[in-house]
């Protein structure tokens, strides 16, 4: 199954927000990403149709198993790549921005190789 970068970003954002908030709503995602609520609504419809999220009648958004699997993968990549770039001396802001781009295009094989050789302290 092919998941587009924007869908991965939305799923990762839902995961991050779910760690900070009791419930996640479209407006929370719009504020976090700086997007219009209408754009987020369209994205949530697509994620729901692809069974990556469920939305309650109250508008609460939850990741399904497939959505959580994708979000966890992207979140792990983001954190490890950001920390690795920072350890290499990259400015934290630039490291986070670059990691955000890399996390979507790096192969599983390359990421696993980096992960195997990078020791990041939590």
Please tag this protein with its features.
122 residues; mainly alpha; elongated; two-stranded antiparallel ribbon; 2 strands; 6 helices; 69% helix
Description:
With 122 residues, this protein is mainly alpha-helical. The chain is 69% helix and 5% strand. The protein contains six helices and two strands; from the N terminus they run αααββααα. It has helices at residues 5-20, 26-33, 37-49, 65-87, 92-105, 108-117; strands spanning 53-55, 61-63. A two-stranded antiparallel sheet has the order 1-2. Helix 1 packs across helix 2 (26-33) and helix 4 crosses helix 5. The protein is elongated. It starts with a helix and ends in a 5-residue tail after the last helix.
Short note summarizing the structure:
The chain has 122 residues and is mainly alpha-helical. The chain has helices spanning 5-20, 26-33, 37-49, 65-87, 92-105, 108-117; strands spanning 53-55, 61-63. The protein has a two-stranded antiparallel ribbon with strand order 1-2.
């Amino acid at each position: 199954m092919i998941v587009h970068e924007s869908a991965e970003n939305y799923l990762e954002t839902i995961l991050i927000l779910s760690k900070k908030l009791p419930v996640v709503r479209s407006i929370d995602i719009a504020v976090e990403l700086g997007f219009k609520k209408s754009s987020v609504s369209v994205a949530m419809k697509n994620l729901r149709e692809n069974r990556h999220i469920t939305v309650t009648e109250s508008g609460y958004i939850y990741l399904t198993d497939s959505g959580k699997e994708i979000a966890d993968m992207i979140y792990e990549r983001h954190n490890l790549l950001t920390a690795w770039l920072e350890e290499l001396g990259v400015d934290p802001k630039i490291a986070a921005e670059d990691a955000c781009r890399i996390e979507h295009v790096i192969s599983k094989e390359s990421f696993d190789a980096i992960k195997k050789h990078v020791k990041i302290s939590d």
